[in-house]
Design brief:
10 strands
Amino acid sequence: MATLQHMTRPILLQLLAMGLMGAAPAPQSYRLDEARSSVAARVAFFGLASKTAHFPRPSGRAELSPDRPDMIGLVVDIDARALTAPDPVTLSRLRGPAFFDVEHHPRVRFAGSRMTMTSPVTATIAGELTAKGVTRPVTLQVTFAQPPGKAGPQDPIHLTGHATINRRDFGMTAWPLIVGRMVKITIDGWLLPD
C-alpha cells in the first residue's frame, strides 16, 4: 500500500500542477477577406518610371498563437489569371509565357511559417514564394494596424506586408534592358477570425 501511495503521489502532483497552470491557448484561425484584401507588384520600367500589376481578391488562411507569436501559419493564394495592368500590352506580356505564364501556372502562393516581432506592431515573416512553378525563400516586412497579440477572438487583423524579389529567380528573364530585375510586392491583408 505504501508503495502504491509513493507511485501515485507524483502523478497527482503533476495533474494538480497542470490544472493550476492551465492549458496553453489554442491557435486562433483566420481567413483572408477576399473582398478587402489585395496584392500589388511594382517594377521599374526603362529605369525612369515603374509599372504596377494588381492582383485582386487573394484568398488564404492564417493561424496565430497568442502565447507564441513566432509560430505562424500564413498562406496567401493569388489567382495570376485575374491580374490587372496599366495597359493592354503590359497585361498581355505579364500573363504570357515570358512572365507569369498564367495558362500553365495560374496560382502564385506565399506561405509564411515563422514570425519575428520587431515592435508591438511590426514583424518579419519568413516563408516561401511560389511563382511560375519556382519556389524561393522570401521574407515579408509586416506592419499591423494594432498589436496582434492584443486582438480578441472576434477581432479582425489588418496587416500590410512588403517584400522585394528578383524576378529572374522565378524564371522571368525577358526584356532585361526595359524591365527592372527587382519587383516590390505589397500585400494588404484583412484577416477575419473563423
